[in-house]
Each structure stands twice: as structure tokens, then as C-alpha cells.
Amino acid sequence: MGKGRDNAVWTSFRPHLTFNLLDLLAEAAGDRDPDGGQGGIGSYLAIMPSLRIALTHKSAALENPALEHNERLEFLGDALLQARVSEALFTRYQDRDEGYLTVARSALVNTDSLAAIARDLGLDQHLVLGQGERNSGGAKKRTILAGALEAVVAAIWLDVGLEAAAAAIDRTVLADLERLDLEVPLVDAKSQLQIHFAKAGLAAPRYSAEMTGPQHAPKFVARVSLEGGASFTGRGGSKKEAEQRAARAALDALAAGGANRA
Q1: For labelling alongside 255, which of 27, 58, 127, 219 has CA 20 to 30 A away?
Q2: Is 78 a catalytic residue?
Q3: Of 6, 78, 124, 243, which one is the catalytic site residue?
Q4: Are residues 164 and 210 located together in one domain of the fold?
């Protein structure tokens, strides 16, 4: 999954869903479900064999080797999301270049946004977790929720078909796409830096951050590493602030022709 894309620029614009996982599965299953979902999640587990795997986290499989976990489905679901969202953006924003569309896609398909959608769907209520993971609040963890949503999309494709999986993506990740304002979010330094490297056909900048100072008053030092070996640092009261300042330092150096130094 694109778990590195946690600093999405559109997350705050994500619409809150008013339906749950069972509603989504009912639409996907169509007339395949004879009782219309009256049997709850069990209705869909019976007709969608991949769904049980999609909802099973690796921690459960470690405790019970007879279970198959969802990481392979997560891989497939991520690819489906990337393709469907790319097609939607390509079609809708025909005047935008590749770099801009790359940032837009990252904004829609990222851990924060996918996890929020999963929470809206109530997906956490159906996860199969190991006891230790469940006790530590695993059902609420962003990476677990986002990965499970990707796996569910893959399960719908495998057990129902590509059209049903595409419809599920349209109804969740791409819901209210027309309400998004492309002019507003792409002004932060990290987005500008990503666009620059995407346009140049280079690898995306890589970020790392360390926390310093006491827990009650933390400070962060972030470093952004660029293809070619250059790296720049930024400091702030939060990880995001430090990363933005590191990105700004890189942009300033690029503008001055000095991005060949660390």
C-alpha cells in the first residue's frame, strides 16, 4: 500500500460516508446474495470467499497459522485503487500535467484518507486481529484500517468482478470528486517539491524525522533526501511542520541552483 503518502493535501476535503461496509458489499454482490444481507457480514462471507481473508490481519494468522492474512490482497487492492483513481483524474482534469495528477492521486490514495473511509464504513468492527493487536487498539490503527480497505476492494474484484470493484472505489475514494478544488491544496512546500521531481521523471523525495526534547514539549528535525544525494533539514514543533520546512529548504536550493549539496 502507499503508506508513505501520509501527508496528503486533500484529506480534509474527503467526504464523510453515510453508508457502511454491509451497504457497500450489498451493492457489489447484487443479486448474488439470496437473503439481501439479512445475515449480516456472514451473508457476504458465504458468497465472497476472499472477503474473510481481506478482513484477517497478519497478527491473527501469526496466532493461528490456519488463517490466511490479507497482505497479498492489500497489494492487489492498492494497484486497483491507483489505476481507478488515475483514470478518474486523467479523464476529469484534462488540462493538468503528469506531475500535478501524481500529487492529486497521492492526495486521494493515502493512509489517512483510506483509514478515514474505513472508519466511516465501520470496517473496524469486522476485522480479525490477533489478541495482542486487538488489546493494543489495532482495530483503530490507520495502517491496519487502510490496508484492510484495499484488501476488501481486491476481494470484491476477485469474487464479483472488476466492474463491482470499480463501483466500490467510485462510491468511496472518488465520492464527490467534483467538490475538490485543485487550486487550493497544492501550495504547500512538500507538494511543490513532489511536482518538481515528478515532472523531471525522478524518484520522489524521501523524508525522515526525529523527535528531540521532552515529551511535554517535543521538537522535530526532519530531513528530505533527493535523488542525486542532496538532503536538506527543517525544524518545527511537529513532524509535518519540520518536513514542510525541509521541503522549503530544498525548493529554495533548487531555485538557487544549489540542490547538489547536502
Answers
A1: 219
A2: yes
A3: 78
A4: no
